[in-house]
Amino acid sequence: MKRILLFLAAAACLATGCNRAQKFTVQGNLKDINFYKVDSLRLESDQLEKPIFIAVNDRDFVFKGSVKEAAIGKIFPVGISKRNQFLILEKGTITFKDGLACGTPLNDSTAAFTARLKALKDKFPNPEDKELRQKAFEDEFFKFVTQHKDDPCAAYAILLAKNRMSKESLSKLIQTASPHIQNDGDVSALKKILTMTTN
Q1: Distance between CA atoms of 123 and 136, rounded to whole angstroms?
Q2: What is d(CA 130, CA 137) in angstroms, rounded to the nearest whole number?
Q3: In what order do the strands lie in the sheet with 40-44?
Q4: In whole angstroms, what is the distance from residue 183 CA to residue 177 CA?
Q5: CA-CA to 169 of 20 to 30 Å: which in 13, 60, 90, 197?
Q6: Residue segments in the chain with a per-residue pLDDT below the cut of 70
Q7: pLDDT at 198
Q8: Of 25, 181, 33, 21, residue with least CA distance to 101
Q9: Could you tell me the domains of the chain?
Q10: What's the rounded Cα separation, in Å, for the pair 133 and 128?
């Protein structure tokens, strides 16, 4: 009887997707991510056991892998660690348009968010509008992080806000995200830096 129950539990687990590994493909051309004269790339994420290295053929690249859950990823030119391309690794095929990852639900959300930020910049072009523009920017960041407080979009927005907000506002933005996102590698590191500089 126990064997039958274990078998049924295993079958139910398979049927409901207990193995929720999200297989992804990341593809594009170097010009899509504003990299030039690069022979190889690496993809890193806290959700990957080790970085994925690939050679670039005729400026085109393709990464394939899987993550246990959607997570922030970064593409680096091999040998250059100061420049990178952010994206969210999740199930599906991820491509790039105008330097932004797209083609999957979370990447499309971050691309739309970035487009809204650009629209705000265009809405307040004059220097005298600086305070209004900053408030509109911060409102958009807080709204987006609140909507995505438990998924990698929140981490993406927080990392994007790093050089666009005061330390106080950035700390509040981090607190808006769920504890899961606050403990994410890059967000957690940023939180520690902010704590050290404000004490």
Answers
A1: 10
A2: 10
A3: 52-55, 40-44, 71-77, 85-89
A4: 10
A5: 90
A6: 1-19, 81, 198-199
A7: 60
A8: 33
A9: 20-102 (2.60.40.10), 106-198 (no CATH)
A10: 9
